[in-house]
Amino acid sequence: MAADSRSDRYSDSKSMSSLFSTRNTMPFKSYWILAFLLFSVNRCFADDDHEMEEFLKREYSLSKPYQGVGSSSSSHWDLMGDAMVTADQVRLTPDMQSRQGAVWSRMPCHLNDWEMQVHFKIHGKGKKNLNGDGLAIWYTKERMQKGPVFGNRDNFTGLGVFVDTYPNEEKHIEAQKKRYTPRTQRIFPFVLAMVGNGSIAYDHERDGRPTELGGCNAMVRNLKHDTFLFIRYIRRRLTVMIDIDGQHEWRDCLDLPGVRLPQGYYFGATAVTGDLSDNHDIISLKLYQLTVLRSKKEEAEEEEEITIPSVDNLDLLRLGEVEEGMSGIAIFFTVLFCMLGFIFLIVIGLVVYSHWNESRRKRFY
């Protein structure tokens, strides 16, 4: 690596020296154009890599050996429900029916930009689609409140990222002897995100479809390698990625701008089981503070204090989902109108041709 670094610096210095050696022969205008291009390239690389730094915030992080979690007053985390601490993980629920558990941060987070890396494991004896229900990672105003949304309260205020392992809507449709269309059917487990303002309910029967911001399928059960979830909030942009293939590579799941989350909320993780069950384990929650260089325009835009969680252009997002769901009907009517238009053109053509043929015969008389 050192040799490569030295060779790179040598190449750079050689390039710069050649640039300045030709300075006398290069036209003045061309020199400034080249200098501007070099400056622009440097800015692009700076925007991608060098303008952001991350720092682990231990007071908002949970990792081994979990000293005092849920029992010591010096711990930054509380346990709730059926959650328990072992040497290897914080087990939110055991592989037993009708259990729910949680771990919540005691300290509110006042960071502008942050990144949460979740090391988790979901495993149990149940076969595919015979397990449930899933776990959730939270950044919310409320904490330590039991409820139906993966072990947390409904009508929450803040952000929820859900790892849903049971297809409630699909089973409900199958019970009615209906079928999914290929466009709307999902493969479970499924990761999705939702922002609530305190009055929006999570639709459990439809697996959160009406209020979701987006998501992706994630086959996370009973894997022998580690599984990770990545949540980043920076410049009012929410990004969710997963690493579940054992390749140490992040895969995109959700990337949405215009997400407005207030400061001073709490991080937490919850899980729930019903008639079906799984072990839902948290191995670590690591929160990083992101230090980001902002332009004056961005600083001016973010001076406004956010008091209620919201998502910009949420109606347009919902409209896009409706249009996607109606695409089959839209294709049918498009084909129908094209066929009618084609028939109409043929009829017009025949009428015009008959009039032309009749007038042609009249010229011969």
Outline the structure in words.
There is one protein chain. With 365 residues, the protein is an alpha+beta fold. The model is unreliable at 1-26, 34-50 and 320-327 (pLDDT under 50). The radius of gyration is 29 Å and the shape is elongated. The strands form three sheets. Strands 1, 3, 4, 6, 11, 12, 13 and 16 form an eight-stranded antiparallel beta sheet that branches. Strands 2-5-15-7-8-9-10 form a seven-stranded antiparallel beta sheet, with no helix packed on it. Strands 14-17 form a two-stranded antiparallel sheet. The chain has three domains: 20-50, no CATH class; 54-309, Sandwich (Jelly Rolls), CATH 2.60.120; 313-353. The chain contains six helices and 17 strands. This is Lectin, mannose-binding 2-like a.
State the share of residues found in helices, binned by percent.
25-40%
Rg calculated over all Cα atoms: 29 Å
Query: How many domains make up the 3D coordinates?
Result: 3
The fold-level CATH name of the largest domain is Jelly Rolls
Outline:
The chain is an alpha+beta fold.
Main attributes?
365 residues, alpha+beta, eight-stranded antiparallel sheet, 17 strands, golgi apparatus
